[in-house]
Every structure is written in structure tokens, then in C-alpha cells.
Amino acid sequence: MEREQYNSFMVRLWRDPGTAAAQGCLRGEIEHIQSGQRWRFRVPQSLLVVLLALIDPESTAPPKNDEQQV
Q1: Residue 44 near residue 31, CB atoms below 8 Å
Q2: From CA 69, how far away is CA 39, in angstroms rounded?
Q3: Whole-angstrom distance between the N-terminal and C-terminal Cα of the chain?
């Protein structure tokens, strides 16, 4: 019997300080709890791209940061 692979993520979202809430740049970070790896992004759509790549690495390119991996 094949064992299910379990993944959990912490997603953090914030706006850059000094910008109006309606116009501020949305920033985010995804942390893969099992490995401790983190990916930061500046484009909200990157959130889904990173999550999909982590969940099914064979069907998607490896995750790439908008900024740097921490």
C-alpha cells in the first residue's frame, strides 16, 4: 500500500509599509513546514505557482522566487 505524502504550508501576506493599502504592493512568503524552505514573492499569482510546484514537482517546473529563497 502506498503511503500518502503530507505537505503543510504557512502563508504570510503583507503590504509594503509607506504605501496606501489600496495601492500598496502585496508581498508574501510561503514556508514548507516539513522542510523549512521558504519562498518569497511579490506577485500574488506566484503563490499558486509555488504551491502547485511543491505539491506535484513532476508536472510543474521547480519553484522560483520573485525575490530570494530564505
Answers
A1: no
A2: 5
A3: 36
